[in-house]
Amino acid sequence: MNDADNVTYDASGLVTAVAQDARTGEVLMVAHMTRAALERTLATGQAWYWSRSRRELWRKGETSGHTQRVVEVRGDCDGDAIVLKVEQAGAACHTGHRSCFFRRVAPDGRLVDEGGPEAPAAGPEILTELAAVLAERRRTPAAGSYTAGLFADGLARLNEKVMEEAAEVARAARKETPARLVEEAADLWFHSLVLLAYQGVSPSEVFAELARRRR
Questions:
Q1: Could you give the CA distance from residue 185 to residue 150 in angstroms, rounded to a whole number?
Q2: Nearest by Cα to 137 from 129, 125, 145
Q3: In degrees, to the nearest 5, what angle opens at C-alpha 126 toward C-alphas 183 and 204?
Q4: How far apart are CA 123 and CA 87, in angstroms?
Q5: pLDDT in tens, the chain (215 residues)
Q6: Are 86 and 19 in contact (CB under 8 A)?
Q7: Helix axis angle, 178-198 relative to 125-139, nearest 10°?
Q8: CA-CA distance, 108 to 11, in Å (whole number)?
Q9: Where do runs of H (alpha helix) occur along the chain?
Q10: Distance from C-alpha of 74 to C-alpha of 72, rounded to nearest angstrom
């Protein structure tokens, strides 16, 4: 398959995409693509997906560095699902596991975790690390980068994004699961860090203010 025209998209303009380790065949994750995401994937050789919660394109590994280099794209017989054979850098799952499918269903229906994350859960230092990445993106924008696009859109759009993400956090707290609240809070923290980077403010200044208030 070499053309996004050969895919059958659903009523929402989406197609299911399965990411599979190109070397071992292990299924790493399942996500969704729009035509634009697939076209960008084919053009860049990097996996791009569509976020149904944020309603925007995102490149795998944009913030974590856990990128997917696409070796091959295959379509099924009906054209309504695709497989990306990828070279995965780091963990595919946001939990830190190599694959999102790290739970086995036991005969009694229980979910049993098999194996641990690839790396220990990140602590607060991840904010400083991410801020450094964002500062670099600000200095040297990368073509096709979601973050570079945010910077290019300017302060007004960044303010809108932070307000949108804050609303998503509040909605998740009211109506959704704790897992969804965690995901939305991560989105809010990320976009807040982008806004700080745009304004030339370091998270260390925020840490210092929190420490001052604590004292």
A1: 18
A2: 145
A3: 115
A4: 27
A5: 456 678 999 999 999 999 999 988 999 999 999 999 999 999 999 999 999 888 899 999 887 778 899 999 999 998 899 999 999 888 898 888 889 998 888 888 888 887 766 654 456 667 877 887 788 788 888 777 788 889 999 999 999 999 999 999 999 999 999 988 999 999 999 999 999 999 999 888 888 898 889 87
A6: yes
A7: 50
A8: 36
A9: 35-44, 125-139, 146-153, 155-175, 178-198, 203-214
A10: 7
Structure tokens at 77: 């017989």
pTM of structure: 0.57
Q: Any residues with CB less than 8 A from the CB of 62 and at least 6 apart, and which?
A: 145, 146, 147
Q: Do 6 and 38 form a contact (C-beta atoms < 8 A)?
A: no
Place of tokens 């670099």: 136
CB 191 within 8 A of CB 180: no
* Cβ-based neighbour number of residue 63 at 10 Å: 19
Q: Are 34 and 9 in contact (CB under 8 A)?
A: yes
